[in-house]
Amino acid sequence: MEGLIQNETKLSLRVDEDSKATEFRLFSTAPPHMRAFHLAWVSLFSCFFSTFAIPPLIPVIRDNLNLTDSDIGNAGIASFCGSIISRLLMGPVCDLFGPRLASSALSILTAPIVFATSLASSPRVFILLRFLIGFSIGNFVSNQFWMSSMFSGNVVGLANGFAAGWANVGSGATQLLMPLIYSYITSLGVTSFTAWRIAFILPASLQLVTACIVLYYGQDLPDGNCNHFRKVAEDPSPKDSFLRILCLGLKNYRGWILALTYGFCFGVELTVDNIIAQYFYDRFNLKIQTAGAIAASFGLANFLSRPIGGVISDEMGRRYGIKGRLWSLWVVQTMAGILCVLLGRVNSLSASFMVMCGFSLFVQAASGLTFGVVPFVSKRSLGVIAGMTGSGGTIGAVVTQLLLFSGFTPFSKETGISVMGLMIIICTLPVTLLYFPQWGGMFCGPSMDSSSINSQEDYYSLQ
Questions:
Q1: For 21, which DSSP code?
Q2: Contact 281, 288 (CB under 8 A)
Q3: Percentage of the chain with pLDDT > 70?
Q4: For the chain, which terminus, N or C, has the lower number of CB atoms within 10 Å?
């Protein structure tokens, strides 16, 4: 195939002219492409595990720290706010220093804060800790940036979907494992209020270990690390300035629309991760372990659902170009909104569980579909666009948490969930406005011929 290179001495996968892999071998660990994939998802998995280790233990923590519903809601919002800040900063940092250093540094800096959760003594300290731990989720940007730097356009949706999807399983795994760890510790004779504190040693240790592995074994780009290329460059380009990279991304309206869209797929997912265990625990009078297991199934669905979104995006891209990627994103996310409305309306445990499972599949697939489009928005400011989109996810989580599930809302949790579904449907409509001159949009074809594409290379990712 024209443009492909088979370098047997250096690379194990087929690559394009930029040394990006044009194939994706899920169970391979071949460097640098597949090794980067596995390092990226494992590192982000540990961050999700740490961030969402608290919600499944809220019934115990709230009794220990005398938390009100308002305190719990504000803590969830604080966690998302921390994530917004780190995601906005992580984009330009990845553009300048590479995903390896950015990812490992953030994990190493936030791991001690996870350890400090065991020392929480008041509602204010609890809220502050959740804010600071939320910074670790900024590693999502480095995760997606890394995959977009390693894999070519024909498989980038698949790589992004699996890397983020498998990482997001951490939010489900922690819902399942933290109550079990807590129960095991209490079975040893440790008091309840001490057991939940000891349990946080596991997520903190996991995050620290994975950060060190990424730092030691990771590689930023197919051809080496970013710092290597900066050292050998004889004529540093003005494109490398922080402000230029940032401005190129911020001026691209496509990034803002994708940030809104992502706010109401991944943002909603974060909100549900935060409330779903308590929702089932309170509404259906379940045991904490049972509620945790049900909540875990929502997050664990990421193992397949988000990668499926990436697969759909790449397949529709092969058949119909960018139009196929955009239409599939709009359809899947709208279906997620409909199922979210239904989730707040059903009254039985079995029906709620079934609808929740369907909703999880669609809303997580929509996240994968969104990042199947992101790599095509900007070539030079890829990190900024990824950061904007990722931040949109957490801003969406803050908005939904604050308006629908905090102490300031008049809604019950059931009504709040249904209103959130309507918000998903409405905020997905701007996808119809996305247009790429060289590829087209949902309703029309390209307006730019191939002879004029080169002048746009700072703004568009050319495959």
A1: B
A2: yes
A3: 90
A4: N
Backbone torsions φ then ψ of 252, nearest 5 degrees: -90, 105
The whole-angstrom separation of Cα 176 and Cα 56 is: 8
Give CA–CA dist 198/125, Å, rounded: 17
Cα separation of 162 and 168, whole Å? 10
* Distance of alpha carbon 289 from alpha carbon 169, whole angstroms: 18
Question: What letter represents residue 22's amino acid?
Answer: T
Instruction: Dump pLDDT digits (tens) for 299-332.
Output: 888 889 999 999 999 999 999 999 999 999 999 9
Instruction: Report the pLDDT value the prediction gives residue 168, as an integer from 0 to 100.
Output: 83
Could you give the C-alpha distances from 330 to 225, 370, 430, in angstroms and in order? 36, 9, 9
State whether the Cα torsion 33-38-39-40 is positive or negative.
Answer: positive
CA distance 439 to 441: 7
pTM of the predicted model as reported, rounded to 2 decimal places: 0.79
Task: Return the closest-CA partner of residue 266 out of 215, 306, 303, 217.
Answer: 306
CA pair distance 11, 21, nearest whole angstrom: 9
3-state secondary structure of 98: coil
Q: Name which of 277, 432, 252 is nearest 353 in CA terms.
A: 277
- The whole-angstrom separation of Cα 71 and Cα 58 is 11
- Contacts of residue 231, defined as CB under 8 A and 6 or more positions apart, other chains included, come to none
Note whether 302 and 80 are within 8 A (CB). Answer: no
120: left (phi over 0), alpha (psi -120 to 50) or beta: beta
pLDDT category, 10, cuts 50, 70, 90?
Answer: low
10 Å CB burial of residue 201 (0-12, 13-18, 19+) is middle
Task: List, in order, residues 6 or more apart from 307 with CB less than 8 Å away.
Answer: 158, 161, 162, 165, 166, 368
- pLDDT tens digits for 351-371? 999 999 999 999 999 999 999
Structure tokens at 69: 């519903």
Would you give the DSSP letter of residue 440?
E
